[in-house]
Amino acid sequence: MSFKIVIPARYGSSRFPGKPLARIAGEPMIRHVWQKACEAGAEAVIIATDDHSIRTHCEQFGARVCMTSPHAQSGTDRVAETVAQLGWADEDVVVNLQGDEPLMPVSAIRDVAEQLINEASADIGTLCWPIERTEELLDPNVVKVVIARSGSALYFSRAPIPWDRDNPAARDPASDISPKAVYRHIGLYAYRAGVLGRLAKEPPCELEQIEHLEQLRALWVGLRIQVSQARDMPGPGVDSPEDLTRVEALLG
Question: How much is the mean pLDDT over the chain?
Answer without folding.
Answer: 93
